[in-house]
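Sample entry (437 residues):
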Amino acid sequence: MQRQFEDHISHFCQPEQRILLAVSGGVDSMVMLHLFHTAGYKIGVAHCNFQLRGAASDEDERLVQQVCEQLKVSFHGKRFETNNYAALHGLSIQMAARELRYAWFNELMQEYSYLLLATAHHLNDNLETTLLNFVRGTGINGMRGIPPKNDNIIRPLLAFTKNELVSYATNNKLTWREDASNESDDYDRNFLRHQVIPKLQELNPSLEDTFKRTNHSLLGAVAIFQLGLDHLCQQFVIQEKDRLQISKELMQYISYPEVVLWELLKDYGFNQTQCADAITAAGQSGKIFLSSGHQLTIDRKVWILTPIPNRLTPMEVKHNDKTVTFGALTMIIERSANNTFSNEPLEARLDADKITFPLLWRSWKEGDVFVPLGMDNKKKLSDFFIDAKISRTDKEVATVLEANGDIIWVVGYRLDNRYKITPQTKNVLQFRVQPYL
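Predicted structure, serialized as tokens:
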């Protein structure tokens, strides 16, 4: 087992790298500590005392510290007020403990220059995770279970079963602690462990070996899937800063486009049902789907993903201002004698003698009207956006420049005809907008 461990771990790290081991005192993590130490890696140990089991939690901490002292391995221990943290943040005890430990692990890694964090998840943990994901609903990534490595976290025991770890610990006379909560069926994972998996083993006594092979195949399938997804992104997705455009042609190119859409949007908080509904509603231009921080807008030919826009406080533009910033945009104001019309959409030249300061730069609102360049009558700005085929996403962030109570420029789209420059114009105000740098 030691040789198999060293062959496996060599794919993820080198002996000269400092590795922080998350050690609870249970058999899995105590075996991991022994394997790393025997292999000669530069390691330190982090132990979390969540103070959930009274004296038993303290005994866990004492054991891990004693073993580290015997092995001459750096020991980092911390006690957490887990119940208080869970109540304060409205979390389950399990989620509270997870947040607390990983935040502390990150602090330790930065302070003591550990490059990797190792956890003691094993093959049976992986089987339970895959089943949990399946029951709760998942995509292909969820079916692969626990990844051997993601970012700076490695899981070097995934190739070994629980029984193999216990046998190793017994043969090497290791000491460990049993967590009584693991015997309860109160948690979903324990229910699977005690009630469901034994029944599956009645159907297939070699369930662990079968799962190991299946998991290996799924990891390969995920790699192939990612290649295909990358190919689809090149054809149908345009990324521009915080804006994502996904072409509706995707629906004609591939079966089950809702699956692809979810893979593209799940990291932005969208669920599978929303993505399926967005495919069904593809013809309803202007319809919006919301996650906690983003909106997906159906446009004529694309789905547009953007952050949910904030309504910004209007910005006053004074007579002597040369630059003004509003949200992500900066407006540059110059005085000029150049009375030729500019075709640049983000530039406006207006008759200065018709404009009274201060100006107001603000988000547009329902009820706004102006006289579009080339017209004599007022038009609702909402109607202008419809006629100009402005997407709902772009409309949400559109701004206007106001003077004398009039909209003199729909920024980036159209001037007001009443304030245009003419051959008789003597003084010109030039406004130019660019992204804020």
